[in-house]
Amino acid sequence: MSASVRDDLLAAGLFVFDRVGFEAATVAAIRAKAHASNGSFFHVFGSKKELAGALFLEVLRHYHAAVLAALDPVPDAEQGIDRLIRAHLDWVVSSRREARYLFEISRSEWGEDVRDAQRAQNARLAEGIERWRAPLVAGGELLPMTPVTFISQLIGPAQIFCRAFLSGRDRADPRSEADPLVACAIRALRPPDRINKQ
After folding, report:
1. I want to staple 59 with a disulfide (CB 3.0 to 4.6 A). Which of 86, 90, 98, 165 is the partner?
2. What is the pLDDT of residues 34-45, one digit of tens each?
3. HSE on the CB side for 114, CA within 13 Å?
4. CA distances from 97 to 52, 103, 106 (A)
C-alpha cells in the first residue's frame, strides 16, 4: 500500500475529527473523504483508534519540528525565548486544524497505544531544547530549573491564549500577545542582572 494512501487517510481523519470530534467520526466518513476503499483503510489501519494514534504522532512531529527550527541558527538566551514562543504561536495559528487536534481533540484513553512513541518524540524535543539551554544555564544566562519547569514558564502562558483561540472562545489571533508573553518569559527565565535593557 502506497504512502500516499496512508497520508490521504491521515489527512481525511484530521478533517473528520476536526469537524465532528473523535467519538462521532466514523471509518466510513474518513474513507469517503480520502476516496479510499474499506480494504484500503483496513490494510493501513486496524481501526479508527489506530488511525487517531498515528495522526497524533504525525501532528506532534510537525509541531516539534516547527519548535526546534526556531533554534537554528543557535540564538542567545533572549533571542531563543523570543523565537520559541513565536514559533509556538505561529504553528498554532498556521496549523490550526492540527493544533486543535493536538491540544483539544486528542484523548489519553485512545492514546495509550502510542504512549511509548509519544515519549520518544517528546524526549527528542527536550534534547533539542536542552542542547541550546544547558550552555546558557551553565553560563548564567538562564536561570537553573528543570526542563519541565522551563517549558511550562516558556509556553504555558502562551498556551492559555492558544487554547482560547482553538476552542473559539476568543477569536483574537494569539500572536497579538507575543510581545508581552516574550517579555514575561524573559523576566521568568533570565537572571535579573542579565536581562537586556532596551
Report:
1. 98
2. 999 999 999 999
3. 22
4. 14, 10, 12
